[in-house]
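Please fill in the sequence for the structure shown.

STRUCTURE ENCODING:
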């Protein structure tokens, strides 16, 4: 089985910090996208949970698209919110993207190492 890594050069985090991990890894038809926050060009996009959720999911989709996966291939999503009061608002955004192909999901509340409200990662499967 071949393992393909996307973004092995690492991305840029807040303050231009080099991120020492792949944006995604693909093996045997599976694609695991690293957790995405509402960042653009290495900086967190300020805003409420609705806007930040959209950007985090869009960042996942951008990486999935690069690897030739679509929303229909998403099997599982992990969500970290920094406040449980964001749950209903996040669900509204989630449904906008995944309403036709709802994946399995976990959502938890925890502090994030980046100053934002949400982080999302996805796992996809497409028969090789």
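FILLED IN BY: designer on duty
SEQUENCE:
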């Amino acid at each position: 089985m071949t393992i393909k890594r996307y973004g092995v050069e690492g991305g840029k985090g807040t303050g231009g910090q080099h991120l020492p991990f792949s944006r995604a890894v693909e093996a045997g038809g599976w694609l695991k996208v690293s957790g995405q926050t509402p960042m653009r060009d290495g900086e967190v996009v300020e805003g409420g949970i609705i806007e930040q959720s959209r950007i985090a999911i869009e960042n996942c989709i951008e990486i999935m698209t690069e690897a030739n996966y679509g929303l229909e291939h998403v099997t599982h999503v992990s969500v970290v919110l920094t406040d449980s009061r964001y749950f209903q608002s996040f669900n509204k955004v989630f449904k906008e993207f995944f309403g036709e192909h709802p994946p399995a999901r976990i959502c938890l509340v925890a502090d994030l190492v980046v100053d934002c409200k949400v982080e999302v990662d996805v796992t996809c499967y497409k028969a090789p």
